[in-house]
Amino acid sequence: MDTTFFHSSRNLYPSVFQVIVAAMLIAPASAVFAVEDCELNKESVNPANGYTTAGKTGMMKCKDRDSGKLVREQELRAGVYVGLVRYYKDGLLFKEYSVNEKGNTDGKLREFAPNGQVILEENNVNGSTRGLLRAWYPNGVLRRVAFIGEGPRDKASVKYTQDKQLSELECGDKPLLAPHVNDAALCGFQAKTSVVQLFSDSGKLKSQINFLSGVSQQSTYFHDNGKPDTVDELGPKQKTRKVYSDKGVLRKETAWNVTEKPATIEREIEYHESGSKVREQLYALTEKEGRRQNRLIADNSFYLNGQPKRSEKYTVEGKDDVKEVRNYFDNGKLSSLERYVYEGRYRERPIGVHQSFAQNGTLVRESHYDERGRIQRERSWDDSGKLLADDQVYEDGSRKAFSK
Questions:
Q1: N or C: which end of the chain has fewer CB within 10 A?
Q2: Continuous segment of H or E residues that includes residue 56
Q3: CA-based angle 387:393:397, to the nearest 5?
Q4: Which residues make beta-bridge pairs with 242?
Q5: Within 10 Å of residue 264's Cβ, how many Cβ atoms?
Q6: What percentage of the chain carries pLDDT values higher than 90?
């Protein structure tokens, strides 16, 4: 918590605005507009007037004018707000901490329930939480233990329900929570896989996770009815995720390549509620203009009878991103074949020869495009294969019979 409004190296006397901001940020909402009477060393002082506290040392105490109850205590050293700070609610201590010369929290911070029970204890270093953190429910039951270090992986935490069941677990690169929590065992740092079950506040099993050396190897999250919702598995080269409906039907499956840093998606499959596959997307690392990127290379959809419905194939040809589209009848036979160059968001330029087919497989339409995406020639046939038209097409849309 940054409380720089308490002190500036160039101005030892806080302005009225600074004190008002301090009260709004730190004091409880009910006390924001309360009028306070403050004293320091049994002398009346006004925190909004720095001249009344200039050069003074001691503990300033402020009471609510209407109720007479203590609202806050704040330490001054030679007129500067440095040291202990305590806040009270309805006359009861609910928060205490210390600030350094920069006005930032530094050292131990504690919060209290109305019954006096400590509900939070943490250590601050120049405004940032560092080291061990513990939190309790108002009845004294341990709620959370955490460690926060300097690095992104230099942290760990556990949370418990009021019934003392484990509800959350985050593992670090090494055990960090002893002696309060045996995360060496929970996180699988003892040369064997640990199986951890996590529960909701109502006592229902919400997930089961297998940890080895602080890394989740397999995790299962459950629906309210107890059936699996999401299942993640980590292998040497691949991570997979399967998502199920509350009826136990597989609805989505995703795979990542974990040998890449960061991991890259390889495959994503969607399923109908009947269990039939309805879509499959494939990805691969490709080179384009000297840049290596993970790109979509295929997007396929399916009829519920299992036959292909549409396939999109993506390739790089020189500087162009090319998409080939194949549409199918529900009997699995090809309906159309088209190619496009991607030119930006929602813009595609047709290229090459586009073809359409009858259900018996006969070619019934063919369109020829130039490199600028303009149609040059169109041909059509009936279902028996008899040529019906062969036209040369001009820029204005007019046409005439094609001649070689």
A1: C
A2: none
A3: 125
A4: 231, 253
A5: 16
A6: 84
